[in-house]
Design a protein that fits this description.
- The chain is an alpha/beta fold and 232 residues long.
- The chain folds into two domains: 92 residues, Elongation Factor Tu (Ef-tu), domain 3 (Beta Barrel); 125 residues, 3-Layer(aba) Sandwich (Rossmann fold).
- Strand 8, helix 3 and strand 9 form a beta-alpha-beta unit.
- The longest helix has 13 residues.
- The radius of gyration is 17 Å and the shape is globular.
- It starts with a strand and ends with a strand.
- The structure holds flavin-adenine dinucleotide (FAD).
- Flavin-adenine dinucleotide (FAD) binds next to strand 4, strand 5 and helix 1.
């Protein structure tokens, strides 16, 4: 489906991360974890980039995607957008989605790869699914934990959701984990990993290393869905 969207709300998540919301057309159906392609005018040229929907299908009124601002041309054009401005949307796309098909899932996110995971966690929580969900997020620093508060609130209403955060370059005051997602961390936080379906999303290097790590744990590719946040 293709349509023109008017920005209805911009949510600043951190200094370098913004969410863009717009009204969901009635006939736009998507699954938690899927992505859209956003086309905008960048210095007189039409440029398209893919973004996971950070909103959940249970949020009926709006669609939302969340962009890490990079200071590059497309990013700056998006960053300068105001309420009421327009862009073109196509989608939904992608197979890294969840609709309740598995009993136990593990979500591994790196950086802005949290966006489809937020969608899946919100979907499971709003639908009151009894899916056992463990989300493991790896970020650089506290500034990147943009959905942390919301995810923590979800764990309060959803007893089947567990969220674990690790930071590789945290401030001194951080008392949580500082290790990268590794075999050791997965064995510790997900002792039942062999019985879970995996979802992996993050920058290409992170996704590649997660694939290697899961392979060495004996998790077959058939049990892994992944989205590499590679640009085009
Ligand atoms: C399925 C999918 C879902 C995605 N979901 C999201 C999402 O939810 N949020 C999100 O933020 N992104 C997401 N992405 C990535 C997104 O599409 C963009 O590629 C990304 O945001 C970077 O776009 P950009 O225009 O800001 O940077 P680009 O200009 O495309 O730069 C990307 C990278 O290339 C390098 N680079 C490019 N040009 C230069 C330059 N002139 N100088 C130095 N380095 C340069 C840098 O390493 C930079 O970080 C997704 C990608 C895919 C495939």
């Amino acid at each position: 489906m293709k349509f023109q969207a008017h920005v209805s709300e911009i949510v600043r998540r951190s200094e370098h991360i913004k969410s863009f919301r717009f009204r969901k057309p009635e006939d736009f159906d998507y699954k938690a974890g899927q992505y859209i392609v956003v086309t905008l005018d960048v210095n007189g040229e039409s440029v398209s980039k893919p973004f996971s929907l950070s909103s959940s299908p249970t949020e009926k009124d709006h669609l939302e995607f969340t962009k890490k601002l990079t200071g590059h041309e497309y990013s700056d054009a998006l960053d300068s957008m105001k309420k009421g401005d327009t862009f073109n949307i196509s989608g939904p796309y992608g197979k890294m989605s969840y609709e309740g098909e598995y009993e136990k899932i593990a979500l591994l996110s790196g950086g802005i790869g949290i966006t489809p995971m937020r969608s899946i966690c919100k979907y499971c929580s709003d639908m009151a699914l009894d899916t056992d969900v463990v989300l493991i997020c790896s970020d650089r620093s506290e500034e990147d934990m943009v959905f942390w508060k919301e995810l923590s609130e979800m764990t309060r209403v959803n007893p089947h959701l567990k969220v674990f955060q690790t930071l590789t370059r945290a401030s001194e005051s951080w008392t949580g984990a500082r290790d990268r997602i590794s075999e050791t961390l997965v064995r510790r936080e997900l002792p039942d990993f062999a019985s879970r379906e995996f979802y992996v999303c993050g920058p290409p290097a992170m996704v590649d290393s997660m694939m290697e790590m899961l392979h060495s744990l004996g998790v077959t590719v058939l049990k892994i869905r992944k989205e590499s946040l590679i640009g085009y």
